[in-house]
Amino acid sequence: MRPQSPLGGSASPKAFGARVLLSCLDCHHYHSMALEAVIKRLQDHGLGDERTGIKAVAIFVSRPCPRCGGWRFDTRPDFPEDAGAVGA
Predict the structure, then answer these.
(1) pTM for this one?
(2) Where do the structural domains in the chain lie, given as residue ranges?
(3) Tens digit of pLDDT for each residue in 29-75?
(4) Residue 34 pairs with which residues in a beta bridge?
């Protein structure tokens, strides 16, 4: 999954337990979330769906960083390290 790709752009990442990594740009604190949970939360709040770009998810963060109180975030794919081993 490329960073500009939609969250649900391919069935493969979801099948391998893909996650979304939310990172604070001020203190580098991070939090990994299940891709399916991110998509569901976007849908529940009417903010987007599986077609939403992964980078766009950062603008929907509704609370400050728990470590530093910052509001600047980045999001990117966070695949499990052993994703390539599935089915091998």
Answers:
(1) 0.73
(2) 17-80
(3) 999 999 999 999 999 999 999 999 999 999 999 999 999 999 999 99
(4) 19
